[in-house]
Structure formats: structure tokens, C-alpha cells
What does this fold into?
Amino acid sequence: MNRILTACAATMMTFVMAACNQTPAPAANASGSNHDADVQAIRDNEKQWNQDFAAKDVAKLAGHYSEDAVLMTPGEPPASGKAAIQKRIEDLVKDPALSLQFQAAAVDVASSGDLAFSRGTYTMTMTDPGTKKPMTDHGSYVTDYRKQSDGSWKAVGDIVVSEMPMAPAAPMKMKH
It folds into this structure.
């Protein structure tokens, strides 16, 4: 009898240990969405965003932002709202030398499933307003996203930080 109970206990322990060692399926978060799928959706969105910059498609570029988004770029006041962002993009893509590529180093989605961010680097070539010659800038960015009712992700905050040294200030003229 003890042998039967020992065998049953050993069999049960084997099943319990096997169940503990199985790799669980990716868990859905509280909102029912899947973290890994959301991260991939944002990466795919940013890949498309790069393509839209290459095409200089203003409508598609502005379409990556929510209506209440804010875009912060070096040397300019924040552009608040989709209309202001679209105007900034229109001015940017008029530059024939414009080229912009960016790459996320990290993408994460909140456990709620409705907020996310990407962080990475960019390289941009544009015409220097002073010399009228192409110049290349590079730096970092952080983009905050909100999941929309249709399941897409739109940028709500986009911050760009140039790593290029600031130009020296013009010397002050002294009054005599």
C-alpha cells in the first residue's frame, strides 16, 4: 500500500514540476491587449514613419500624432496640437536636403495597455539657414504613445534632443 501511495505521490510531483517548468503563453494585460504585440505594433509604426519621412508625405507624417499631441524640437517652442505639428512638418519637408532616419533602442508598453514609449536615436540632414549648405544633426528622442479606440498607436508627446554642440553666441557689443 505504501508503495502505491509513494508511486502516486511521485507521479503527482512529476506532473506538478512539469507544469511549473512550462513556458507560459504571453499574458494579456489588464486591458486585454498583448504586450509583445503592442511593442511590435509601435516598432512597425516607427518603420512606416521613417518611410513617410523619406516620401516627405505631410499628411501621413502628421497622421502619426494624436489631436492633442505636443512636438518639442531644438531651438523652437513646442508645437501643441496636430494642426501646429502639421505646420511644423510642412515647413520641414520643404527643405530639399531633408533626410531623417530614427531607430528605437527601447520600446515598452504600460501594464494598462493604453500608454507606451519609444526611445532611440536619430540622424537628420537639412539645409543650414546660415550657410545654405547641407548639415547633419544627430541626437536622441523619446516618443510617448496612447492607444486609440481603433487599436492604433498615436504619438502624444515627441521630444527631440540634439547632441550637436550649440553654436556660440554672438559677442555682445559694448556701448562707449
Remarks:
- Residues 1-27 have pLDDT under 50 and may be disordered.
- The longest helix spans residues 35-55.
- Strands lie at 65-72, 79-80, 99-109, 115-127, 134-147, 153-162.
